[in-house]
Amino acid sequence: MVSVKTTLNIHDELLARAKRHAKATGKPLRALVEDGIRLALSASSFAQSQYQLPDLRFGDADAPDPLAGYAWPELRDLIYEDRDA
Question: How confident is the model at residue 46 (pLDDT cuts 50, 70, 90)?
């Protein structure tokens, strides 16, 4: 495994908390940072694989759209025609 030195700009308070946590857990700060990066990377791959709603459309997919011939004001009037004004 190859290690590369790098410089990170970390907010002072966050760095102080990280150092305290590293000391309390007996880990070097480097290991804590690596764990955090691994966690962030695994979380982003989880976010990409979140639940997707099933496709529950019905009817003929090749049929023409029955609403395509209406303008929005006409659709609005049809939707609200039975309501009191």
Answer: low
